[in-house]
Amino acid sequence: MLLTNSAFEQSSVTRTSAAPQMSAQQTLDVTADDVRTMIQYLRKAKARAVEIRDRSPAGSYMESVLARTIDSITLELSQLDYLLARKPVDADALPNQQRRMRPAI
After folding, report:
1. pLDDT score of 89
2. How confident is the model at residue 28 (pLDDT cuts 50, 70, 90)?
3. Number of domains composing the chain
4. Distance (Å, rounded) from C-alpha 32 to C-alpha 88?
5. Residue 85 — very low, low, confident or very high, per pLDDT cuts 50/70/90?
6. Residue 43 covered by a domain
7. What is the extent of the structural domain holding 49?
8. How many CB atoms lie within 10 A of CB 69?
9. What is the structure's pLDDT at 29?
10. pLDDT of 80 strictly over 80
11. For the chain, what is the mean pLDDT?
12. In this structure, is residue 81 part of a structural domain?
């Protein structure tokens, strides 16, 4: 009977099947409608998490995980709202800054 160490086998498989590192960052074109769709999805997910948290026992592990999840979703929603409120920067419309700051003394 041959005994194997499954933890070693799993780690070696994980190392060999790791995804190659990409040298360039990929960019996505995201429209305001895409952001609004994401906000709608996150609001529904947050409402669902609040419902589940309200039914979970107080002080339980599930309640604490859901509380952190709700806080994270709230933060993400505020960031997406901020992105929607900002106007896109038009680099061509910005005036050239000819005057620089004076040198430090």
Report:
1. 61
2. confident
3. 1
4. 11
5. confident
6. yes
7. 30-86
8. 16
9. 82
10. yes
11. 77
12. yes
